Amino acid sequence: MAKEKYPVRLTKIDEYSTTVRNFHFEFLQKPRFDFIPGQFVMVEVPKENEKPVRKPYSIASPPHFANKIELCIKLVEGGFVSTWFFGLKVGDDIEVEGPLGVFRIKEPLPEHLLFVATGTGIAPLRAQFEDLLEHGYQKPITFVFGNRYENEIPFHDELLALAKKHSNFHYLPTISRPKNWSGQTGYVQDLIKNKFPDSKGIHVYICGLVPMVNDLKATLEGLGYEKDAIRFEKWT
Fold first, then answer.
1. Can you give the pLDDT at residue 208?
2. Can you tell me the distance from the alpha carbon of 186 to that of 136, in angstroms, rounded to the nearest whole number?
3. Is 137's pLDDT higher than 60?
């Protein structure tokens, strides 16, 4: 079922690399919709002599960021919609349709929440754990974040500051193709095997490309994690 469309204005762009940007949109004539962290919006882009192209993007910001949403987008080679986004400039107006989707935090909450993402898969997870922290959640939250290179980690400084501010939030970045990186290296699957082999009391939330999500699910199930303790959003 289609949702209402909302006009929004691009007010800021955070550039994390040549192919990853975070777009800040403020709502115009209508107040921003209420949404559950983990949901997404649909964007429709006109295409000459063809039907418009519709593409979903997870909301990367939590609800307490007033009257705005953020969309963290990777430029895909040959990707019509991502190329269109990367051509936008501050001050441009677009429409978003939403909120949509059912990827949300499951209650009752466990003793430990483990979030795992690669690249722009951080988007819905950032909305989720920042919302929990904003509302005073005190139990352990761990965010395992995989990227290829150390100079293109979205929200890296913000995540470091979040871990410094909240003693229950643990940020574990890992780099698969390090150049000058002294932290954790390798894939998120390997880090999970090494640091979280015991599934007791842990629920896992995953977002990223299909191969990573499938591999990590298999890894978790091999470690003894129950299927109902694993929730995910796959991106193609």
1. 95
2. 32
3. yes
The domain segmentation of the chain, as residue ranges, is 5-100, 112-235
Tell me which residue of 56, 79, 66 sits closest to 25, measured CA to CA: 66
pLDDT at 234: 85
Q: Are 59 and 35 in contact (CB under 8 A)?
A: yes
Which tens digits make up the pLDDT trace of 195-212? Answer: 999 999 999 999 999 999
- Classify domain 112-235 by CATH number: 3.40.50.80
Q: Are 95 and 57 in contact (CB under 8 A)?
A: no
Q: How far apart are CA 69 and CA 27, in angstroms?
A: 8
One-character DSSP codes across 3-55: PPEEEEEEEEEEESSSSEEEEEEEE-SSPPPP--TT-EEEEEEEETTEEEEEE
Topology of domain 5-100, per CATH? Elongation Factor Tu (Ef-tu); domain 3 (2.40.30)
E strand or H helix at 157, and its extent?
A: helix 156-165
| Tokens 């987008």 sit on residue | 73
**Are the C-beta atoms of residues 116 and 25 closer than 8 Å to each other?**
no
**Rg over CA atoms, the chain:** 18
Residue 233: pLDDT band (50, 70, 90) is very high
CB 120 within 8 A of CB 152: no
What is the sign, positive or negative, of the torsion defined by CA atoms of 27, 66, 12, 116? negative
Dist CA 227 CA 220 (whole Å): 9
Mean pLDDT of the chain: 96
